[in-house]
Design goal:
Order of helices and strands: EEEHEEEEHHHEHEHEEHHEEEEEEEEEE
Domain ABC transporter: 9-241
Number of domains: 2
CATH architecture of the largest domain: 3-Layer(aba) Sandwich
Shape: globular
Organism: Isoalcanivorax pacificus W11-5
Radius of gyration: 24 Å
GO molecular function: ABC-type ferric iron transporter activity; ATP binding; ATP hydrolysis activity
Bound molecules: adenosine-5'-triphosphate
Strand content: 35-45%
Strand order of the largest sheet: 7-8-9-3-10-11
CATH topology of the largest domain: Rossmann fold
Structural class: alpha+beta
Protein name: ABC transporter ATP-binding protein
Keywords: ATP-binding, Cell membrane, Ion transport, Iron, Iron transport, Membrane, Nucleotide-binding, Transport
Number of strands: 21
Largest sheet: 6 strands, mixed
Helix content: 10-25%
Number of helices: 8
Length: 351
């Protein structure tokens, strides 16, 4: 049955293998129009293979992929990439060197009139802030400008779905962050649905409406960036999605857990029975330095990042906490630091 057009992409229990190795297992997710997904996970977990399967570059051994409601891949069937109508920006997706910037951007617009093509090329170049550069050739551009042209080229035909594989990975951090923010703004403005592969958790959180965390070919969690960080479904997701520490505890009642850092309160009711032994996830911003803080800790390690300092703290019983402060709270390794625990809701795992 055709799916509604509001779902540009639907993966239903897809599997991919290279020879004997199944590298994507039972992965399902759906994107509505305008949603931006980031696939995130450790090296070799199957991010690029999943993206290539969506592009039609890898066959499926099970499940199916629908694009705009039409079957695009299933076991034994792969609609060729050029018939999927997708935009793609891959790290190694070079521009055509012998074509000007404008010709590159207009490449997929051969079927429209010259006037309309010119209008859309100008519009796309403005979108990626390369107005007036249409006459240049790729070798006359910086790496960041070349990737902007690749993005403009992919967006020019207004594809329903665009796939990006670490599009700015070769650029330095500042430029990458800036381009990622521009990318998000452009995708939201154009209403383009996107799937982006990245290694970088901060990058994923900053761009995505939805994040998929993969581990060894399996999708561990598909959720908003907020929930991936604050309501991780598994310990793996909790650890992969950001810094933090786990404290041993015992559930007291629906809203309290006793730990060596005190009796912690959760605004959201806890789902485990009283008496359960648990590990409580505390993110670095849940641990707040205070002169009259209830908990005395000792600084074990500190990382200065400019605006912030990330501390690793040790409690009297040897358990550790992470603590993120503004860089004005500047304490040496070995010094005492008093803190309060300010977690609003508690995330618990069985231990
Ligand atoms: N062409 C291939 N032939 C055989 N095995 C492959 C091939 N391409 C990838 N693999 C293997 O499939 C698994 C998934 O690879 P994939 O490139 O999808 O991972 P990834 O999550 O994108 O990794 P990275 O973040 O390092 O790019 C890895 O174990 C990889 O070694």
């Amino acid at each position: 049955m055709p799916q509604p057009l509001s779902q540009p992409l639907q993966l239903d229990r897809i599997h991919c293998r290279y020879d004997e190795h199944e590298v994507v297992r039972d992965v399902s997710f759906t994107l509505e129009r305008g949603q931006i997904a980031c696939l995130l996970g450790p090296s070799g977990c199957g991010k690029t293979t999943t993206l290539r399967a969506i592009a039609g570059l890898e066959p499926l051994t099970g499940g199916d992929i629908r694009i705009n409601g039409q079957r695009a891949s299933s076991a034994g069937f792969t609609l060729p990439p050029e018939q999927r109508g997708l935009g793609m920006v891959f790290q190694d997706h070079a521009l055509f060197p012998h074509l000007s910037v404008a010709e590159n951007v207009g490449f997929a617009l051969r079927r429209v009139s010259a006037a309309e093509r010119q209008r859309r090329v100008d519009e796309c170049l403005a979108m990626v802030r390369l107005q007036g550069m249409g006459g240049r050739y790729p070798h006359e551009l910086s790496g960041g400008q070349q990737q902007r042209v690749a993005l403009a080229r992919a967006l020019a035909p207004r594809p329903p779905l665009i796939l990006l594989d670490e599009p700015f990975a070769s650029l330095d951090l500042d430029l990458r962050r800036q381009l990622n923010q521009e990318l998000r703004a452009i995708l939201l403005h154009e209403g383009t649905t996107a799937v982006i592969v990245t290694h970088d958790q901060e990058e994923a959180f900053a761009i995505a409406t939805h994040v998929g965390i993969l581990r060894a070919g399996e999708l561990m969690q598909w959720d908003s960036p907020y929930n991936i960080y604050h309501a991780p479904a598994t310990r793996f997701v909790a650890e992969f999605a950001g810094a933090g520490a786990f404290l041993r505890g015992i559930v007291d009642d629906d809203n309290h857990v006793s730990t060596a850092a005190g009796r912690l309160h959760s605004h959201r009711p806890l789902t485990r029975p009283a008496g359960s032994q648990v590990d409580v996830l505390l993110r670095p911003e849940d641990v707040v330095p205070a002169e009259q803080g209830a908990l005395a800790t000792r600084v074990q390690h500190r990382v200065f990042t400019g605006p912030n300092i990330l501390y690793r703290l040790e409690m009297d019983n040897g358990e550790q906490l992470s603590c993120l402060t503004g860089s004005h709270v500047d304490v040496d390794v070995g010094a005492l630091l008093k803190v309060d625990i300010a977690a609003k809701h508690l995330v618990l795992f069985g231990n």
